Amino acid sequence: MNETLLRELIAEVAAGTLRPEAALAELQARMRRQPFEDLGFARVDHHRALRQGAAEVILGRGKTPAQVGAIAASIAQGSGNVLITRATREMHAAVTAVLPEAEFHPIPQAITVRREPPTRGRGTILVISAGTSDLPVAEEAALTADLLGGPVETLYDCGVSGLHRLLGELDRIQRARIVIVVAGMEGALPSVVGGLVAAPVIAVPTSVGYGASFGGVAALLGMLNSCASNVTVVNIDNGFGAGFTAAAINRG
Questions:
Q1: In this structure, are residues 91 and 69 in contact, taking their beta carbons and an 8 Å threshold?
Q2: Rounded distance, CA 235 to CA 216, Å?
Q3: pLDDT band at 18 (very low <50, low <70, confident <90, very high)
Q4: CA 180, CA 84: separation in Å to the nearest integer?
Q5: Angle between helices 20-31 and 3-15 (to 10 degrees)
Q6: Sign of the Cα pseudo-torsion (130, 215, 89, 62, in order)
Q7: For the sheet containing 81-85, what is the strand order?
Q8: Which DSSP symbol is given to 8?
Q9: How much of the chain exceeds pLDDT 90, in percent?
Q10: Are residues 72 and 113 in contact, defined by beta-carbon separation less than 8 angstroms?
Q11: What is the pLDDT of residues 105-155, one digit of tens each?
Q12: What residues have CB less than 8 Å from 95, skipping those under 6 apart?
């Protein structure tokens, strides 16, 4: 059950190509499978798209490839697109066994199934990374946002140690509706970007850094203490959370 299906049924009834009784029967058949499907090891939430604007996303970590494949197949029945984060190539093989069009993205370690055009929002989401080492998290954010509420642009390796790289793209940065800034080390970049734009800035601390970075805690604390009023922060390495939130804002 999703918004696309509901709109299609309503349009067909309005056009006279589908009788109201047939549309009702289709809805009732789908509702009998709602709001979730019990797979024994997982309860797939088929009403997620109606409540949150996007279908349930699978976290691959901690699951077996067989479990991921079964959950993906279930989600695909009610949603054209599927997103699996923190995935492996073994999981990809299990998913392609049931959904042959599944694509593996090696940098963010994610799997996507695209059967419908991705949802588009009201503006552009720009993903900025401080360094190349931050790319796995930045790419997770970009992939999530693109699938759920893009369009998305990226601007990578623009950290504060070479600020001219960022300032050279100022026009592009200021055109974005939402900016996601991904940084490790001391986590200063979101504050810099926040002072340059009127758009909301979603800061993502990464675990990139040396000993005193404490696995991203230093960057997290730096971002939480930002003096830029438009900066909000997600958890360490949570590119998915940043991308999902940016997409939700952009759809609104």
A1: yes
A2: 9
A3: confident
A4: 20
A5: 160
A6: negative
A7: 58-59, 81-85, 110-114, 103-105
A8: H
A9: 72
A10: yes
A11: 999 999 999 988 888 899 999 999 999 999 999 999 999 999 999 899 999
A12: 68, 69, 72, 82, 84, 102, 111, 113
- In this prediction, residue 51 carries a pLDDT of 78
Q: Give the phi and the psi of residue 118 in degrees, each rounded to 5.
A: -65, 150
What number is the average pLDDT over the span 4-11? 79
Q: Which two tokens stand for residue 139?
A: 């790419």
Overall residue count recorded for the chain in this entry: 252
Average pLDDT over residues 54-77: 94
Specify the CATH number of the domain 120-251: 3.40.50.1970
For residue 39, the model assigns a pLDDT of 87
Domain boundaries defined on the chain: 33-114, 120-251
The pTM of this model reads: 0.85
Using an 8 Å Cβ cutoff, are 247 and 144 in contact?
yes
Q: Return d(Cα 201, Cα 194) in angstroms, integer.
A: 6
Residue indicated by tokens 């997290």: 220
pLDDT at 34: 61
Matching residue, tokens 């979101």: 190
Which distant-in-sequence residues (6+ apart) come within 8 Å of 181 by Cβ?
128, 129, 130, 189, 190, 193, 201, 202, 203, 204
Q: Give the model confidence (pLDDT) of 166-191 as tens digits.
A: 999 999 999 999 999 999 999 999 99
Mind giving me the DSSP string for 128-167? EESSGGGHHHHHHHHHHHHHHHEEEEEE-S--GGGTHHHH
**Contact between 105 and 206 (Cβ < 8 Å):** no
CB atoms within 10 A of CB 180: 31
User: Residue 89: enclosing H or E segment and its boundaries?
Assistant: helix 89-96
